[in-house]
Design brief:
- By secondary structure, this protein is of the alpha+beta class.
- 39% of the residues lie in helices and 11% in strands.
- It has 24 helices and 16 strands.
- A hairpin with a 4-residue loop joins strand 3 (143-147) and strand 4 (152-156).
- It is globular and about 105 Å long.
- The termini are far apart.
């Protein structure tokens, strides 16, 4: 082989390695090695690549014409023995997360391939894929992201990468997933950004499982076409477009969250309720982050010029389908076939990201594990996420996802984990109090905190939900801005923030009370009005004439995530369809299990919901007046048997669930931050400690013990 030919082949091998390919030569005279991949070629190198591509394509045509006469040439290799060149970052064939090659970019002239591909053809093909990424305006690169929860290199296709690399999505890095929980559990600092990536990953894995079931069903249908329970029909097959839509919905389902996540909803709804009351109206439009997520997605695609058609999706049908996947659909609502461009037989796909039927979806599966890891240092090991997904399949008769009957106890443990996370983390009494204090901060600063909106016009914080440009700029940073601003209008809000920093929280006036029966339906506003309507001694009224403004009522509602049509809490297993793989009829129709017969009474709670009322005072001056009104209201509710005394101020096990509890059930250090004032009716015994039974059977000291508690 001459020096010129050897130099030319070495140049070709270097270009192929630069595209991320592993090309081996079968030539005995030349031994090519794969060098370390250099940085991505700059844009100005495209012309050189295109010229080389044209030359190689011309050589490939000449090689193909003379392939029959020159089968033993040194520059040929057998596709059966050598790896086929692949696009950058694309793994071996068989990975269901990888799209077909048609989805990698706009179609280009393909090099015809027979049973044998020449060396020049292989390099030309690899350069085609390389140019698809280097050309401006073409598809974004796919990306792999390491996830600390799923311990995997999560693969994101080009469409998800394009959406992720936008300011609207990157703002999720500045939003705490758990809001104020970080002020109680210091490790709870995970963000909405990582949660969204985790949900997209689980959505892809779930779709992979369903597509595997689909492939198996097709093989079995060929053997017995009359077996109706085998899913799906050929016309209802899950397509690659369906999978991309589900993964995209998992990625962007939380775009509508505001600062401190759900606390921002509490703030806006509180402001709107007060404004409606001032205007004499009884109803108002409640803020829902799911609706804002759809608006934010439209703003993201428009502002960043992202066209779904560029990624081989349909803008007219796939975008409405993604929005429907994000929000979910009530089982009683009709299927919008014209809007989403899919038959109702694919309705079960809505159960993956936002399940409105039974609440088992990848969104909850991710944050159950992720939040438990952040708060307690280890994931919830008592809930096998992968097993739950693998033991599920669509039920064709009702078009919902069902589970194997043997998973009933495991699913109940999943809902038990949810209830305990709400009791110990999400709605911990200190967390709820801190949320109210931060709401007071935002209410004081809302009219003076301006955000730059569309066309650079200033927008008030409470009005940002009507301007997606302004809303995309708000985040948890607003508290730092209020705290460090020299504006006099922020002085009162800054004082409340200073109290939070010093742990000078609002005082609890007396022990909480648990509502019973129909009293559970009372709203927080109704309870607050009833307490304000209580008569108090004139002496206390003179000491604190503004005690009603200092009253803070916190209503904590906890259930197992399942309610009937009348909004009554029920056993969550009543809404789950099950099947038995050994009974073919159940694969098609599914069935509901008899909880009393199928599960032991040892794992069932005494109640499926609990409502606890806490009352605080913003100002110590109003403590006695608020306590007098609250005690009067509490005694009247107890007499009417609408409530019962709460057993302890620390809600360790609110519904007395004997089932699976949290992995690391340790009360945070600061559970004593809600002191009862010294003039409370419960005299504090110096040096004594209240003992509560911990979840592992041992006693732990958590705070001062009163005489009445003894």
């Amino acid at each position: 082989m001459g020096e010129e030919e050897e130099e030319q082949q070495q140049l070709m091998a270097t270009e192929a390695a630069d595209a991320g390919e592993v090309l081996l030569s079968q030539s005995a005279a030349t031994d090519f090695t794969t060098p370390t991949r250099p940085p991505r070629a700059p844009v100005h190198a495209q012309l050189r690549h295109q010229q080389l591509l044209q030359r190689l394509q011309q050589e490939a045509e000449e090689d193909a014409a003379g392939a029959e006469d020159d089968e033993g040439a040194d520059d040929g290799f057998d596709l059966g023995s050598q790896p086929t060149p692949r696009a950058p970052n694309q793994q071996q064939h068989g990975s269901s997360l990888r799209p077909p090659r048609a989805a990698w970019g706009p179609s280009k002239p393909a090099v015809s391939q027979g049973p044998t591909q020449t060396y020049s053809q292989g390099i030309a093909q690899s350069l085609q894929y390389r140019l698809r990424y280097d050309e401006p305006g073409y598809l974004a690169r796919p990306r792999t992201v390491h996830d600390r929860v799923w311990h995997d290199r999560t693969w994101l296709p080009p469409l998800l990468t394009a959406v992720m690399d936008t300011p609207e999505f990157q703002r999720l890095r500045g939003l705490k997933q758990l809001g104020c929980v970080e002020l109680v559990y210091p490790g709870a600092s995970n963000t909405r950004f990582e949660h969204s990536l985790g949900v997209a990953h689980l959505a892809g894995e779930y779709m992979k499982h369903l597509m595997d079931l689909q492939h198996t069903a097709e093989l079995e249908r060929e053997q017995d076409p009359e077996r109706r329970y085998m899913m799906p029909d050929p016309a209802d097959k899950i397509t690659w477009r369906d999978k991309m839509c589900v993964m995209l919905a998992g990625l962007v389902h939380d775009l509508g969250h505001g600062p401190f996540s759900h606390m921002f909803e509490l703030f806006l709804n509180s402001v709107r309720a007060r404004e409606a009351q001032e205007q004499g109206r009884t109803d108002y439009q409640r803020f829902d982050h799911e609706d804002i997520s759809s608006k934010m997605l439209d703003e993201l695609l428009r502002k960043n010029n992202i066209k779904l058609s560029t990624y081989h999706l349909d803008d007219d049908h796939d975008l409405p389908f993604v929005k429907l996947l994000m929000k979910g659909l009530d089982p009683y609502e009709p299927w919008p076939e014209k809007e989403v461009g899919r038959p109702e037989t694919k309705r079960y796909l809505l159960d993956i990201v936002a399940n409105k039927r039974n609440g088992i979806d990848v969104d909850k599966l991710d944050y159950f594990v992720r939040d438990n890891l952040s708060v307690f240092g280890q994931p919830a090991s008592n809930v096998p996420i992968n097993r739950i997904m693998r033991c599920s399949r669509p039920i064709p008769a009702t078009q919902e996802i069902g589970f194997e009957s043997k998973m009933a106890h495991t699913i109940l443990e999943l809902f038990t984990l949810r209830a305990n996370l709400h009791a110990h983390v999400y709605q911990h009494h200190t967390v709820k109090l801190l949320e109210r204090m931060i709401c007071d901060v935002l209410e004081e600063a809302s009219d003076h905190l301006l955000i730059k909106g569309r066309d650079d016009r200033p927008v008030k914080l409470k009005d940002t939900v009507d301007d997606m440009v302004a809303y995309s700029r708000v985040g948890d940073w607003i508290l730092k801005h209020i705290e460090g601003s020299p504006q006099k209008e922020f002085a009162k809000a800054a004082q409340i923030l200073d109290r939070i920093r010093r742990r000078d929280l609002y005082l609890m006036v007396s022990s909480p009370v648990t509502l019973e029966g129909e009293a559970k339906r009372k709203t927080q506003i109704q309870i607050e009005e009833e307490i304000k309507g209580q008569a108090i001694p004139s002496k206390l009224l003179q000491e604190a004439p503004n005690w009603q403004q200092d009253l803070v009522v916190v209503r904590v509602y906890i259930d197992y995530g399942a309610r009937d049509r009348n909004k009554n809490a029920i056993n969550p297993l009543e809404r789950v369809k099950f099947f038995n793989p050994k009974m073919p009829d159940t694969l098609y129709k599914g069935f509901k299990i008899d909880v009393e017969k199928h599960l032991s009474k040892l794992v069932l709670p005494k109640s499926w919901s609990e409502v606890t009322v806490y009352v605080y005072t913003r100002n110590r001056v109003s403590f006695k007046a608020i306590k007098s009104a609250y005690v009067g209201w509490k005694e009247s509710t107890l007499q009417r048997r609408e409530a019962m005394p709460c057993e302890g101020r620390f809600n360790h096990s609110p519904m007395k669930t004997p089932g699976v509890l949290l992995t690391a059930p340790v009360e945070p250090e600061d559970t004593s931050n809600l002191p009862i004032a010294e003039d409370d009716e419960d005299e504090v015994i110096p040096g004594a400690k209240r003992k509560l039974s911990s979840l592992d059977g041992e006693d732990e000291e958590v705070g001062p013990l009163s005489k009445r508690a003894t």
